[in-house]
């Protein structure tokens, strides 16, 4: 029964290919991306989003790039001596089955030395790189959001 055997082999090959596609970029869904609107001439801004890991392995965001800024870094906000400060982080973890939020006051994609004005109605193209080297392209609409407050009450 050669035809049957070759059908089984074909199925096996197909399954193997499907497995290989289960990389971080395939597991992680990006929802509600947006970039902070800033006044014309502003040096920096930030982008936010939700990263939802639908896979069975932990993943991490390890880098981001954008043509809208000369330098793009992953940042977090931390309280230090009663002051809100931000600092670069090498990775932002996205545990299996969980959602990691990049939001004002927390993790964000920092856009430094903007190459364009971030006005309402524009979009910022972002390329996200995950821990396995897989990449995902995201379009972040520019949105006006409230100024970050330093009050912690
Ligand atoms: Cu920052």
Structure description:
- The chain is of the alpha+beta class and 153 residues long.
- It has a single domain (27-143), classed as Sandwich (Immunoglobulin-like).
- It is built from two helices and ten strands, in the order H-H-E-E-E-E-E-E-E-E-E-E.
- Strands 1, 2, 3, 4, 5, 6, 7, 8, 9 and 10 form a ten-stranded mixed beta sheet that branches.
- Strand 1 (28-36) and strand 2 (44-53) form a beta hairpin.
- The chain is globular and about 45 Å long.
- The termini are far apart.
Topology summary:
Elements: H1 2-20, H2 24-27, E1 28-36, E2 44-53, E3 59-65, E4 69-80, E5 83-88, E6 92-94, E7 99-102, E8 108-114, E9 123-130, E10 135-143
Parallel strand pairs: 1-10
Antiparallel strand pairs: 1-2, 2-7, 2-8, 3-6, 3-9, 4-5, 4-8, 9-10
The structure holds copper (II) ion.
Copper (II) ion is lined by residues 46, 75, 86, 108, 110.
Order of helical and strand elements: HHEEEEEEEEEE
Q: Main β-sheet, in a few words?
A: 10 strands, mixed
CATH class type: Mainly Beta
CATH H level, superfamily name: PCu(A)C copper chaperone
Bound molecules: copper (II) ion
Task: Name the features.
Immunoglobulin-like; binds copper (II) ion; ten-stranded mixed beta sheet; 153 residues; 2 helices; single chain; alpha+beta; globular
């Amino acid at each position: 029964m050669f035809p049957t055997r070759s059908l089984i082999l074909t199925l096996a090959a197909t399954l193997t290919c499907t497995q290989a596609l289960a990389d971080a970029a395939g597991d992680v869904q990006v929802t509600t991306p947006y970039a902070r609107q800033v006044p014309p001439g502003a040096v920096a801004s930030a982008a936010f989003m939700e990263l939802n890991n639908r896979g069975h392995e932990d993943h991490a965001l390890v880098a981001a790039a954008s043509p809208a800024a000369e330098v793009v870094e992953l940042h977090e906000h931390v309280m230090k001596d009663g002051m809100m400060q931000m600092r670069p982080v090498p990775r932002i973890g996205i545990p299996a089955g969980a959602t990691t939020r990049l939001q004002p006051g927390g993790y964000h994609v920092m856009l430094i030395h903007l190459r364009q004005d971030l006005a309402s109605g524009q979009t910022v193209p972002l390329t996200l790189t995950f821990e396995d080297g897989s990449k995902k392209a995201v379009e972040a609409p520019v949105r006006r959001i409230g100024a970050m407050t330093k009050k912690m009450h």
